[in-house]
Amino acid sequence: MEEKNYCYKYPHPAVTSDCVIFGFDGVAIKVLLIQRGIEPYKDKWAFPGGFMQIDETVEECAKRELEEETGLKTTSVEQFYTFSDVNRDPRERVITVAHYALVRLEEVKGGDDAMSAQWFAMNEIPSLAFDHDRILRIAVNRLKERICFEPIGFELLPEIFTMSALQNLYEAILEMKFDRRNFYNKMLKLGILSEAEERPKNASRRTPIKYRFNAKKYAELKQKGFRLEF
Amino acid sequence: MEEKNYCYKYPHPAVTSDCVIFGFDGVAIKVLLIQRGIEPYKDKWAFPGGFMQIDETVEECAKRELEEETGLKTTSVEQFYTFSDVNRDPRERVITVAHYALVRLEEVKGGDDAMSAQWFAMNEIPSLAFDHDRILRIAVNRLKERICFEPIGFELLPEIFTMSALQNLYEAILEMKFDRRNFYNKMLKLGILSEAEERPKNASRRTPIKYRFNAKKYAELKQKGFRLEF
DNA sequence: ATATCTTTGCGTCAAATTAACGCAATAAAG
DNA sequence: CTTTATTGCGTTAATTTGACGCAAAGATAT
Do A49 and A124 reside in the same domain of the chain? Predict the structure, then answer.
């Protein structure tokens, strides 16, 4: 018989944080899911997440649960919506604050044996536990909006990347195709890319220029107010 | 001695919903505040809001509390951020889901005797209870972002309005000035305004054209994906 | 009354931006 | 060895933006 030692005058819901983690493999956007080991929804796939402790914020909770369940240590998650439908969890009243983060695929040893975390391409997502399908839909919309205003995409790429890698990423997220030459010009004109390494003199046309994200230039731009548009 | 009948195995936070209600008096943006009648922060101004009941969503809670505290019945509120700092309420651990809504000023009998709700212009906001200063800052930012993508501004105007009333609203929210003629052209080109009434033949130049928001046209536009820009 | 200021509708025009596409070099694939 | 794909660097026309002109006539001040 379990003890219930925390008592209140009025009913309180439980609060959880969930994490929608996006990655990019060079071709498609992927999300990180874990397979539930316990009821409810045992064996179903779900987002990493769990109950908030009484002495942590929802963001701290999201990062803690993410690391516990997937081994992934991320510096920042961003909350995007709080789901509070009355019956979203069969155990008790639970509201969840959903977060998202963008990570480089290498950072997760996905498909580990210890952790049952696994990357899924957007078109291969299995049926999810709880209301996580809805959470995913909203997360994807938020990602699409966000990428047009902040250069968060760089968090998904290796530190050094080519222009076509960047274009592939934008095309994958926004589900659009862009003219290669116009994309190239637009990105360069923004001024937030720096050439990453000296180009060898013998470099041929087919050897692409390598870039890195210039956070300093971006900060200046942001100060003035600007917009990344597509 | 009060009874505490709701017991849990782990500590649970209380959950509240707060409402940042925006209005527009033709010149300035205003927000609706209530004066607290009880501790903590007794007599301080705060956003309408209160504890979520166990059988309602956070949005339902926001609307219910708003009506209870200000008499304002609004059809929709939109949540924009969940505040979860550990010590944001001295009584117990409370996380709050903050919402915003835009209403026409007439709809609130502000400054009533019964209700201590009152409209404040943005530059006359008193010091607020809890972390409500921070909530307001974030709400204002969200409003600015939002007005550029969705024509939510119409919710703040009377059903029938003139172009310069609309421009005043945008200028008040975005804290910018626009060229009257360019604003006029841009708005008309969007195609989401309809002329509200036949213009009398004897109408002079100084009699402005009256418009109303064309929700149908807007829905069509939104389908295709578009952007309201300033 | 008379002069001045303000508001409104409607336009103009140059500058900037966008969108579509050409071309040559050359690595990679068949 | 031929074909295909990728990359850097353009060009050009269409569109959009931003700054501003102008006249009619109500509002305001003298």
Answer: yes
